[in-house]
Amino acid sequence: MKTTASEHDSFGSTMSPSAAEMSSAKPAEPTKSEPSTFESLKVRIRHHYELASEYYYSLWGEHIHHGYFLHPNDTKDVAQIQLIELLLQRSNLAKGSKILDVGCGIGGITISGKQVEMATKLTKDASGQNKVAVGEPIALGNGSVRFLELDAETMGEHFAGQSFDCVWISEAMSHLPDKELFFRNAFELLKPRGKLVIADWFKAEDLTEKQVEDDIKPIEDGMLLPPLCTQSQYVKFGKEAGFGVFSDPFDISQQVLKTW
Questions:
Q1: Tell me: the pLDDT tens digits for 154-185?
Q2: Is the dihedral of CA 76, 99, 177, 198 positive or negative?
Q3: pTM score
Q4: Which of 62, 161, 231, 244 is deepest in the core (most CB within 10 A)?
Q5: Residues whose CB falls within 8 Å of the CB of residue 194, separated by 6 or more in sequence, listed in order
Q6: Among residues 52, 36, 27, which one has the least CA distance to residue 223?
Q7: What whole-number distance in Å separates Cα of residue 151 and Cα of residue 176?
Protein backbone atom coordinates (compact mmCIF):
# COMPACT_ATOMS: atom_id res chain seq x y z
CA MET A 1 0.00 0.00 0.00
CA LYS A 2 1.88 3.02 -1.20
CA THR A 3 0.64 6.22 0.32
CA THR A 4 -0.09 9.18 -1.91
CA ALA A 5 -2.02 12.32 -1.28
CA SER A 6 -5.00 10.79 -3.00
CA GLU A 7 -5.10 7.27 -1.63
CA HIS A 8 -6.46 5.69 1.54
CA ASP A 9 -4.28 2.66 2.12
CA SER A 10 -6.00 0.43 4.61
CA PHE A 11 -9.01 0.21 6.82
CA GLY A 12 -10.82 -2.31 8.91
CA SER A 13 -14.55 -2.77 8.80
CA THR A 14 -16.86 -5.34 10.27
CA MET A 15 -20.18 -6.03 8.63
CA SER A 16 -22.90 -8.16 10.15
CA PRO A 17 -26.04 -9.62 8.57
CA SER A 18 -27.94 -8.86 11.76
CA ALA A 19 -26.93 -5.25 12.22
CA ALA A 20 -29.85 -2.87 12.00
CA GLU A 21 -28.24 0.25 10.59
CA MET A 22 -25.98 1.16 7.71
CA SER A 23 -25.41 4.50 6.09
CA SER A 24 -23.41 5.13 2.94
CA ALA A 25 -22.83 7.69 0.25
CA LYS A 26 -23.85 7.02 -3.34
CA PRO A 27 -20.55 6.96 -5.22
CA ALA A 28 -20.22 6.24 -8.89
CA GLU A 29 -19.94 2.61 -9.87
CA PRO A 30 -16.39 1.40 -10.62
CA THR A 31 -15.48 0.98 -14.24
CA LYS A 32 -16.28 -2.49 -15.53
CA SER A 33 -13.92 -4.44 -17.78
CA GLU A 34 -14.75 -7.29 -20.13
CA PRO A 35 -14.90 -10.76 -18.50
CA SER A 36 -12.01 -11.95 -20.66
CA THR A 37 -9.89 -9.13 -19.24
CA PHE A 38 -10.79 -10.18 -15.71
CA GLU A 39 -9.90 -13.82 -16.44
CA SER A 40 -6.55 -12.71 -17.82
CA LEU A 41 -5.99 -10.68 -14.65
CA LYS A 42 -6.71 -13.72 -12.47
CA VAL A 43 -4.14 -15.74 -14.40
CA ARG A 44 -1.56 -12.99 -13.96
CA ILE A 45 -2.28 -12.71 -10.23
CA ARG A 46 -1.97 -16.47 -9.74
CA HIS A 47 1.27 -16.56 -11.74
CA HIS A 48 2.65 -13.63 -9.75
CA TYR A 49 2.10 -15.32 -6.39
CA GLU A 50 3.35 -18.67 -7.67
CA LEU A 51 6.65 -16.96 -8.50
CA ALA A 52 6.88 -14.42 -5.69
CA SER A 53 5.46 -16.12 -2.57
CA GLU A 54 8.80 -17.41 -1.31
CA TYR A 55 10.34 -13.98 -1.84
CA TYR A 56 7.46 -12.31 0.02
CA TYR A 57 7.93 -14.81 2.84
CA SER A 58 11.63 -13.95 3.09
CA LEU A 59 10.78 -10.23 3.02
CA TRP A 60 7.59 -10.00 5.10
CA GLY A 61 7.55 -13.28 7.04
CA GLU A 62 4.50 -15.46 7.64
CA HIS A 63 2.07 -12.55 7.48
CA ILE A 64 2.04 -11.21 3.93
CA HIS A 65 0.26 -8.01 4.88
CA HIS A 66 1.01 -4.63 6.42
CA GLY A 67 2.00 -3.91 9.96
CA TYR A 68 0.02 -1.66 12.31
CA PHE A 69 2.73 0.38 14.01
CA LEU A 70 1.76 1.82 17.39
CA HIS A 71 5.17 2.50 18.94
CA PRO A 72 8.52 3.72 17.50
CA ASN A 73 10.26 0.48 18.43
CA ASP A 74 7.63 -1.87 16.98
CA THR A 75 9.21 -4.47 14.71
CA LYS A 76 7.58 -5.50 11.45
CA ASP A 77 6.54 -8.83 12.96
CA VAL A 78 4.99 -7.21 16.03
CA ALA A 79 3.17 -4.65 13.86
CA GLN A 80 1.74 -7.36 11.61
CA ILE A 81 0.32 -9.18 14.63
CA GLN A 82 -1.06 -5.86 15.89
CA LEU A 83 -3.03 -5.44 12.66
CA ILE A 84 -4.63 -8.84 13.20
CA GLU A 85 -5.34 -7.96 16.83
CA LEU A 86 -6.91 -4.66 15.75
CA LEU A 87 -9.33 -6.43 13.43
CA LEU A 88 -10.14 -8.99 16.13
CA GLN A 89 -10.80 -6.20 18.60
CA ARG A 90 -13.02 -4.21 16.24
CA SER A 91 -14.96 -7.28 15.11
CA ASN A 92 -15.30 -8.75 18.62
CA LEU A 93 -15.03 -12.30 17.30
CA ALA A 94 -15.59 -14.99 19.89
CA LYS A 95 -12.95 -17.62 20.64
CA GLY A 96 -13.63 -20.85 18.82
CA SER A 97 -15.23 -19.09 15.83
CA LYS A 98 -15.31 -20.96 12.54
CA ILE A 99 -13.56 -18.61 10.12
CA LEU A 100 -13.26 -18.62 6.34
CA ASP A 101 -10.06 -16.67 5.61
CA VAL A 102 -10.18 -15.59 1.96
CA GLY A 103 -6.87 -14.68 0.37
CA CYS A 104 -5.09 -16.25 3.32
CA GLY A 105 -1.71 -16.31 1.59
CA ILE A 106 0.63 -18.70 3.39
CA GLY A 107 -1.27 -18.44 6.51
CA GLY A 108 -8.41 -20.38 4.15
CA ILE A 109 -8.45 -19.78 0.58
CA THR A 110 -5.68 -18.61 -1.71
CA ILE A 111 -5.47 -18.40 -5.50
CA SER A 112 -1.93 -19.80 -5.43
CA GLY A 113 -1.10 -23.48 -5.16
CA LYS A 114 2.39 -22.49 -4.05
CA GLN A 115 0.95 -20.61 -1.10
CA VAL A 116 -1.16 -23.64 -0.14
CA GLU A 117 2.01 -25.74 -0.20
CA MET A 118 3.92 -23.24 1.95
CA ALA A 119 1.03 -22.74 4.38
CA THR A 120 0.60 -26.48 4.84
CA LYS A 121 4.32 -26.96 5.52
CA LEU A 122 4.49 -24.11 8.04
CA THR A 123 1.40 -25.38 9.87
CA LYS A 124 2.71 -28.94 9.93
CA ASP A 125 5.99 -27.69 11.39
CA ALA A 126 4.12 -25.69 14.05
CA SER A 127 1.78 -28.56 14.95
CA GLY A 128 4.27 -31.40 14.68
CA GLN A 129 1.97 -33.28 12.28
CA ASN A 130 3.98 -34.28 9.26
CA LYS A 131 1.69 -36.86 7.63
CA VAL A 132 -1.30 -34.68 6.82
CA ALA A 133 -2.00 -34.39 3.09
CA VAL A 134 -2.39 -31.02 1.37
CA GLY A 135 -6.02 -29.87 1.65
CA GLU A 136 -6.74 -31.93 4.78
CA PRO A 137 -7.47 -30.37 8.21
CA ILE A 138 -4.45 -29.91 10.47
CA ALA A 139 -4.97 -29.77 14.24
CA LEU A 140 -3.42 -26.61 15.66
CA GLY A 141 -3.84 -25.34 19.23
CA ASN A 142 -7.45 -25.83 20.28
CA GLY A 143 -8.75 -25.93 16.72
CA SER A 144 -7.78 -26.95 13.21
CA VAL A 145 -6.97 -25.32 9.90
CA ARG A 146 -7.29 -26.36 6.26
CA PHE A 147 -5.80 -24.62 3.21
CA LEU A 148 -7.42 -24.61 -0.22
CA GLU A 149 -6.51 -23.26 -3.65
CA LEU A 150 -9.74 -21.74 -4.91
CA ASP A 151 -11.04 -18.86 -7.00
CA ALA A 152 -12.79 -16.69 -4.41
CA GLU A 153 -15.57 -15.95 -6.88
CA THR A 154 -16.59 -19.63 -6.69
CA MET A 155 -16.58 -19.89 -2.90
CA GLY A 156 -20.37 -19.68 -2.72
CA GLU A 157 -20.66 -22.85 -4.80
CA HIS A 158 -17.70 -24.61 -3.18
CA PHE A 159 -18.95 -24.13 0.39
CA ALA A 160 -22.66 -24.46 -0.39
CA GLY A 161 -24.45 -25.96 2.61
CA GLN A 162 -21.73 -24.86 5.03
CA SER A 163 -21.80 -21.81 7.29
CA PHE A 164 -19.19 -19.76 9.13
CA ASP A 165 -19.06 -17.40 12.09
CA CYS A 166 -16.80 -15.09 10.14
CA VAL A 167 -15.56 -14.45 6.62
CA TRP A 168 -12.18 -12.72 6.97
CA ILE A 169 -10.43 -11.03 4.04
CA SER A 170 -7.29 -8.98 4.66
CA GLU A 171 -5.70 -7.03 1.80
CA ALA A 172 -7.08 -9.39 -0.83
CA MET A 173 -10.48 -8.10 -1.97
CA SER A 174 -8.82 -5.38 -4.01
CA HIS A 175 -7.63 -8.18 -6.34
CA LEU A 176 -11.19 -9.42 -6.96
CA PRO A 177 -12.83 -8.16 -10.16
CA ASP A 178 -16.43 -8.79 -9.03
CA LYS A 179 -16.60 -7.41 -5.52
CA GLU A 180 -20.40 -7.34 -5.42
CA LEU A 181 -20.38 -11.12 -6.00
CA PHE A 182 -17.96 -11.57 -3.12
CA PHE A 183 -20.23 -9.65 -0.73
CA ARG A 184 -23.23 -11.74 -1.82
CA ASN A 185 -21.32 -15.00 -1.38
CA ALA A 186 -20.01 -13.94 2.03
CA PHE A 187 -23.51 -13.07 3.19
CA GLU A 188 -24.86 -16.46 2.09
CA LEU A 189 -22.05 -18.37 3.84
CA LEU A 190 -22.36 -16.62 7.21
CA LYS A 191 -24.38 -17.90 10.13
CA PRO A 192 -27.01 -15.57 11.62
CA ARG A 193 -25.12 -12.73 13.34
CA GLY A 194 -21.96 -13.81 11.53
CA LYS A 195 -19.42 -11.15 10.55
CA LEU A 196 -17.48 -10.12 7.48
CA VAL A 197 -14.12 -8.62 8.50
CA ILE A 198 -12.23 -6.57 5.91
CA ALA A 199 -8.91 -4.79 5.61
CA ASP A 200 -8.05 -3.46 2.17
CA TRP A 201 -6.60 -0.79 -0.11
CA PHE A 202 -8.80 2.08 -1.20
CA LYS A 203 -8.71 5.21 -3.27
CA ALA A 204 -9.94 8.45 -1.75
CA GLU A 205 -13.34 9.92 -2.53
CA ASP A 206 -13.83 12.60 -5.22
CA LEU A 207 -10.48 12.28 -7.00
CA THR A 208 -9.86 14.30 -10.13
CA GLU A 209 -9.11 12.53 -13.40
CA LYS A 210 -5.50 13.71 -13.12
CA GLN A 211 -5.14 12.29 -9.60
CA VAL A 212 -6.51 8.95 -10.75
CA GLU A 213 -4.19 8.91 -13.76
CA ASP A 214 -1.10 10.05 -11.83
CA ASP A 215 -1.54 8.28 -8.50
CA ILE A 216 -4.07 5.44 -8.76
CA LYS A 217 -3.49 3.91 -12.18
CA PRO A 218 0.21 3.14 -11.51
CA ILE A 219 -0.76 1.33 -8.31
CA GLU A 220 -3.49 -0.66 -10.05
CA ASP A 221 -1.15 -1.63 -12.89
CA GLY A 222 1.83 -2.41 -10.68
CA MET A 223 -0.11 -4.43 -8.10
CA LEU A 224 -2.33 -6.31 -10.60
CA LEU A 225 -5.55 -4.71 -9.40
CA PRO A 226 -8.86 -4.08 -11.11
CA PRO A 227 -10.12 -0.52 -10.54
CA LEU A 228 -9.73 0.41 -6.87
CA CYS A 229 -12.86 1.25 -4.90
CA THR A 230 -13.57 3.80 -2.20
CA GLN A 231 -14.56 2.82 1.32
CA SER A 232 -18.11 4.00 0.72
CA GLN A 233 -18.43 1.71 -2.29
CA TYR A 234 -17.63 -1.31 -0.11
CA VAL A 235 -20.29 -0.17 2.37
CA LYS A 236 -22.74 0.15 -0.52
CA PHE A 237 -21.90 -3.33 -1.84
CA GLY A 238 -22.33 -4.75 1.66
CA LYS A 239 -25.69 -3.09 2.17
CA GLU A 240 -26.95 -4.34 -1.19
CA ALA A 241 -25.91 -7.89 -0.20
CA GLY A 242 -27.88 -7.66 3.04
CA PHE A 243 -25.21 -6.61 5.55
CA GLY A 244 -25.36 -3.94 8.21
CA VAL A 245 -22.31 -2.20 9.68
CA PHE A 246 -21.11 -3.54 13.03
CA SER A 247 -17.96 -1.37 13.19
CA ASP A 248 -17.58 1.74 11.03
CA PRO A 249 -14.79 1.88 8.43
CA PHE A 250 -11.64 3.61 9.63
CA ASP A 251 -8.44 4.77 7.94
CA ILE A 252 -5.10 3.44 9.25
CA SER A 253 -2.87 4.75 6.46
CA GLN A 254 -0.49 6.52 8.82
CA GLN A 255 -0.13 3.51 11.11
CA VAL A 256 0.77 1.13 8.27
CA LEU A 257 3.01 3.57 6.38
CA LYS A 258 6.20 2.33 8.08
CA THR A 259 5.71 -1.08 6.47
CA TRP A 260 7.17 0.42 3.28
A1: 999 999 999 999 999 999 899 898 999 999 99
A2: negative
A3: 0.73
A4: 231
A5: 16, 17, 163, 164, 165, 166, 167
A6: 52
A7: 9
